[in-house]
Design brief:
- About 35% of the residues lie in helices and about 20% in strands.
- It has a domain of about 70 residues: Helicase, Ruva Protein, domain 3, CATH 1.10.8.
- The longest helix is centred in the last third of the chain and has 16 residues.
- It has about 270 residues and is of the alpha/beta class.
- The radius of gyration is 20 Å and the shape is globular.
- A hairpin with a 2-residue loop joins strand 9 and strand 10.
- It has a 6-stranded mixed beta sheet with strand order 6-7-8-3-9-10, with helices on both faces. A 4-stranded antiparallel beta sheet has the order 2-1-4-5.
- It has 9 helices and 10 strands.
Amino acid sequence: MPDFAVSIDSLTKFFPPARTGWRAFLQPFEKPTIPALHQLSLDIRAGESVALLGANGAGKSTLLRILSTLLLPTSGRAFLAGHDAAQFPSEVRRNLGYHAGSDLGFYPRLTGRQNLLFFAQLNHLPAGIARDRIDQFAAQFELSEALDRQVRTLSSGTIQRLSLARALMHSPRILLLDEPTRSLDAIAAASFRHFLKSQILQSGATSLLFASHSLPEIELLAHRVAILKKGRLIALDSPAALIQQTASHSLEEAFFRLTGHAHDLPAEEVHL
């Protein structure tokens, strides 16, 4: 898929129903019937930033986990940097930076610095370059005091910043972020958004797909917004275009209208 950094074609994912007790033993043999994604298609151009917006359970994290090669789809295909994510996961990972809002995957008894050096080696980054980038991100994300402490002693917000540094260490062509500022305080979140805007997106060398519940964050960073509802893509356009198409006064109002929840808005925010 040479024209797109990411190309998603009819991606579908079903999970088995949750079971408890003796029924849980049968779960591996049950046919998956719970839909997480349904026939989702989406293309992302080189250097483009696309935000995933939807309620909890809309399929945002499932999509990011499939694209990051952590999950296999039930059907459909996804190409990243021209490589099929299911068939050539190693090639995809070489071009990919992935940050999850949870399950951060660090080795808790190693220091932050040791973890970053280890993951840099996995991405074939020379040791000297890795050390320079660790110093760069330590200053950028205020990690200097935490780098030489065991990860198990760090706060959740610090681990979140460490995970962001790990995702960016090898200068990936494609960056996947799942609620990247969720555990950050207001100052750290604003600093990271500025870093993404000025250092990552401005160059046009990196394509960004991120999930967020922060509408100001989406309006600042996203060229287009993909709105998901129950695993389906129901709208895809720029924030301004979505507002205009729905005759809304804000992205929040447009989101409520598109997802059929306009009645949940306070009366003073609904504009007819």
